[in-house]
Amino acid sequence: MTDTPASTGRDYRDTVFLPETPFPMRGGLPQKEPTIIEAWGDLYGRLRAERQSQNAPLYVLHDGPPYANGDIHIGHALNKTLKDFVVRSRFLLGYDVDYVPGWDCHGLPIEWKIEERFRSEGKRKDEVSKAAFRAACREYAEGWIDVQRDQFKRLGVLGDWDNRYATMDFATEAAIVREFHKFKNSGQLYRGSKPVMWSPVERTALADAEIEYHDHVSPTVWVKFPVIGATDSHPDDLLAFRNATPAIVIWTTTPWTIPANRAISYGPDIAYGLYEVTAMEEGLEFEPWARPGDRLIMADKLAEAVFKAAKVASWTRVDDLDPSGLECAHPLASLDPGYGFSVPLLAGDHVTDDAGTGFVHTAPGHGADDFEVWKAHGHHEVPDTVDADGAYYPHVPLFAGLKVIETEGKKDKIGKFGPANKAVTERLIEAGNLLARGRMEHSYPMSWRSRAPVIFRNTPQWFIRLDKPLDDDGTLRERALAAIDATAFHPAAGKNRIRTMVEGRPDWLISRQRAWGTPLAMFVDKHTGQPLHDDAVDARILKAIEQGGADAWFDTPDADFLGTHDPARYERIEDILDVWFDSGCTHAFTLEPRDPAHGYEGDRPSHWPADLYLEGSDQHRGWFQSNLLEGSGTRGRAPYDAVLTHGFTQDENGEKMSKSRGNTTDPAVVIKESGADILRLWVALVDYAEDQRIGKQILQTTVDAYRKLRNTVRYLLGALNGFDESERLPLDQMPPLERFILHRLWQLDGQVRRAYETYDFQDVVRPVLEFCSGDLSALYFDIRKDSLYCDRPDAIRRRAARTVMDAVFERLTAWLAPLTPFTMEEAWTTRFPDAGSNCLRVMPETPEEWRNDAEAERWAKVETVLEVVNEALEAARRDKVIGGALDAWPVVSGPAEAFAAFEGLDPAEVFRTSGAELRVGGDVVSVEVKSADHAKCARSWRRVPDVGSDPDYPELSARDADAVRWLDARRAG
After folding, report:
1. Concatenated DSSP letters for 347-394?
2. Which of 235, 438, 515, 530 has most Cβ atoms within 10 angstroms of its Cβ?
3. Would you state the pLDDT for residue 409?
4. How far apart are the C-alpha atoms of 936 and 942, rounded to whole Å?
5. Would you state the pLDDT for residue 283?
6. SS3 956
7. Do you find a cis peptide bond into 491, omega within 30 degrees of 0?
8. Rounded to whole angstroms, how far apart are CA atoms 528 and 890?
9. Cα(702)–Cα(12) distance, integer angstroms
10. Integer distance in angstroms from the first to the last C-alpha of the chain?
């Protein structure tokens, strides 16, 4: 290998055009991001003004309100970041975007916090006026709105923060009441007494959307109901004195409901039999409750399992038995005359022989099916057994005052099952009507707020009918189902999910028995039980609430509202609305008043319906559905055109996050340690439609991906230092490699636009990452490094490279701006400090003429050969044959078709070697790595034949000598 010619002593390092940029390698995001937020100021307002000046189309994303209670968690961060991706990407695509963040403020969690505060001050809740209590709730919620707003802003979330909505604002509460009045006045509202999910701990009814199911161990009992009457269709000796009185056997996991029993349901198509016990198991540690001679009635399919539970060793099947027409005694009748009523047998389609006994103990006050079958058979009186606190009423024989659910006492006892189950079981033993008992783990309904068990309890509540024919002859359910079919769902499976829920859901329960909320502000005629329909009364109610909030309803005398109506005739309703009704109305007071179609002329236009609602997948039964029902009931359709759902965030092992487990990821900690752009990039990289995982290792992977993006942008900034329009080269002068990169930009432009249009953010960031690490870093930057550093600045190849890099920079900073806005802002303002915010830009158009399928095909073939050459060079480096690629002169052999793609290319340039030779021959590509046997250029380090060919620069190649001469002349001039 020939050494470098005798040195002239000149140091050529200052003649190399190395990249220069103040953009640092390390992001320093935790320190830098707050200064960028401050510099942005009212960026959202400026964006709206600019897009409106451009007559941009309007896009509306309506915010589902988080609850104003506590710091944001990782689920909040995911949700709000996804919304920000939508907002920023729509601005980038040239839309004017309306996004007003909001908060849900009413409800139990805040009530509990205030109750705890008063208790800590030595005050009971009943010692505090309702007005003072509500004022404390309002103050508490406002404080957390301020905290959460700052936390969302720190994430980089854009929105109309100065005009945020909150369900507790006076005007908002009035708007919610106005929506409620629409249901009242259209006849869709009714008061019904039926079993509803009731939380004794919270002392209120709950809707299906407020229930979640957890594993729970319940007591199970098999109970005998003695048969005391039968129709003539039954055998004459069924109740004969010579035989034991037969008993129907029921099975239940809620012994506490036995005092409320009024019937037994059976399945008309189930085969039942009369069985007689002939022998009991022996050697038991306890005396079983069954005896030889006992006669029991149950489903044939389940008889064996029942006898096993009762420790019966053998039995005989006496006869078939039709339960129709039988009449039983209550199992507690012998202990108290209060249970001396007869218990009829009722046919019910809800009864199966899959488990239990084939009979269902029916307590119409404590079960939906029980209630319906009781009513269907002409019974109207539904017993009240359990009060609002989960205790038996004083009139309940044997059990008055006993708690089903504990609601007082020590904190660890509240929400646990009380003594009722045990007491009822012991009384059944005393009465001789317990056949067997056990325990069973099953899924049990709990309040999602308190995590305490709920019970079915018969109470008078207010409902919205789903199946009443409306003005268009359709029902609310039919309208809602039609609206679902007209809505685009992302992912598409969401449509079936919400459709199934709406098809099978009961009427909408909207009343709650609490203090902190929007009232069902209406009067009811005490004689007819019907709501008062009077526009003037409604108008006075709305005006009062607009001026004084919900307090005005509770504190104003009835006569002030009722006008000419007699206050003595009317009942003021003091229930509050379900919080889902509150948030189901957000579209009505956030979007509709700002719709130009309704006369709005301000600078914050919106439109109804919204283009998109975006929340977690649990909101199919929550916010999506409450908005669907509210919009369909008052306006005939859903208030949205599309719905996007995301999954839930788990820890790195796929486990549910829990503070008690210590496996949570706090977004504030991530931002403090790594920066908001790291958290945002994690959101962009995950498949948000499914459950996602996060933790230290996953975040480290995200940091690695961020470094690739940052280093790519940093390299571009350095390479483009000093670039101006005079350097720009037209497309027809571009070398093949530049044409290929422009083609890739054309490809990516279409892909990125489609991905943003369809909310597939993963399909933005992953292809861009691959482009940065593959096409740019591994291919383009590596090949063009020599030209950028060593070609004279006016060389066609260098100008082409810088022109293309300018196009790459322009697009990367735009494409990634919605996802990593802080970093792209830093990059843009580093290069263009006076050009305004990067966020104000519209995505640059990519010319169709950049499309070049031929170059794409060519470079796919080139890279196939390049991969073989790189492997050979790496092996030669390992074996010390060469020190680096510039010491090599590979000879590449292979079939002619493998090299056809190299026509018009310099193989040495592609291989990043000093020289290269392509030889046609052989069936496969093979490489012989030879040393470049030429002198080494002191500037570019290439070993090429023309080193020393210029006498003025004997240590340089001809190319480098020409560049230095050009540079020396300018320095001298």
Report:
1. E-TT--SSSTTSEEEE-TTS-HHHHHHHHHTT-------B-TTSBB-T
2. 515
3. 63
4. 6
5. 80
6. coil
7. yes
8. 99
9. 40
10. 39
Contact between 83 and 114 under an 8 Å Cβ cutoff? The reply is no
Phi, psi of 415, deg, nearest 5: 90, 0
Place of tokens 């200064």: 35
Cβ-based neighbour number of residue 38 at 10 Å: 8
Which three-class secondary structure state does DSSP give residue 284?
A: coil
Separation of alpha carbons 945 and 738, rounded Å: 27
**How far apart are alpha carbons 611 and 381 in whole angstroms?**
49
Question: What span, in angstroms and rounded, lies between the C-alpha atoms of 200 and 195?
Answer: 14
HSE value, Cβ hemisphere, 13 Å, CA-based, for 333: 15
| 3-class secondary-structure state, position 662 | coil
Phi, psi dihedrals of residue 758, rounded to the nearest 5°: -105, 10
The answer to whether 516 and 576 have CB atoms below 8 angstroms apart is: yes
Sheet containing 612-616: which strands, arranged edge to edge?
A: 96-98, 58-62, 612-616, 642-646, 488-490
Q: Using an 8 Å Cβ cutoff, are 672 and 30 in contact?
A: yes
Question: How long is the chain?
Answer: 973
CA 785 to chain centroid = 45
Instruction: Give which of 879, 864, 863 is closest to 931, Cα–Cα.
Output: 879
Q: What is the pLDDT of residue 412?
A: 63
Q: How far apart (Å, rounded) are the C-alpha atoms in residues 510 and 577?
A: 6
Predicted confidence at residue 885, as pLDDT, reads 94
| Residues in Cβ contact with 473 at an 8 Å cutoff, skipping those fewer than 6 apart | none
Alpha carbon distance 308, 172 (integer Å): 61
Find the angle CA(789)-CA(793)-CA(795) to the nearest 5 degrees. 100
Q: Which two tokens stand for residue 953?
A: 């620069």
Which one-letter amino acid corresponds to residue 180?
Answer: F
Closest listed residue to residue 223, CA positions, set 290, 170, 285, 159:
290
150 three-class SS: helix
Using CA of residue 393, residue 395, residue 396, residue 400, what is the dihedral sign? positive
| 749 CB-near residues (< 8 Å, 6+ apart) | 811, 843, 846
DSSP string, 37-54: HHHHSSHHHHHHHHHHHT
pLDDT at res. 204: 74
Distance (Å) of CA 926 to CA 193, 886, 892, 907, 961: 86, 19, 6, 15, 35
Question: Which has the closest alpha carbon to 204: 111, 128, 138?
Answer: 111
Counting as low any pLDDT under 70, the low residues of the chain are 1-7, 125, 207-209, 232, 236-243, 409-415, 442, 448-449
d(CA 520, CA 904): 80
Report the candidate in 815, 828, 807 with the shortest Cα–Cα distance to residue 767: 815
448-487 per-residue burial string, b: 16 or more CB within 10 A, e: under 16: ebbebbbbbbbbebbbbbbeeebeeeebbbbbbbebbeeb
Give yes or no for a contact between 789 and 814, defined as CB atoms under 8 angstroms apart.
no
Q: In whole angstroms, give the CA distance from residue 238 to residue 286.
A: 31
**Rounded CA separation 390/401 (Å):** 9
Alpha-carbon span 267 to 559, nearest angstrom: 54
Q: Determine the number of helices (DSSP H) and then strands (DSSP E) in the chain.
A: 29, 30
What does the alpha-carbon distance between residue 862 and residue 892 come to, in Å, rounded to a whole number? 12
Q: What pLDDT, on a 0 to 100 scale, did the predictor assign at position 374?
A: 82
Closest CA to 624 of 760, 470, 484, 447: 484
Alpha-carbon distance of 627 to 613, in angstroms, equals 10
What single DSSP character describes residue 871?
H
C-beta separation of 261 from 214 below 8 A: no
Helix (H, G, I), strand (E, B) or coil at 214: strand
Distance from chain centroid for Cα 738: 42
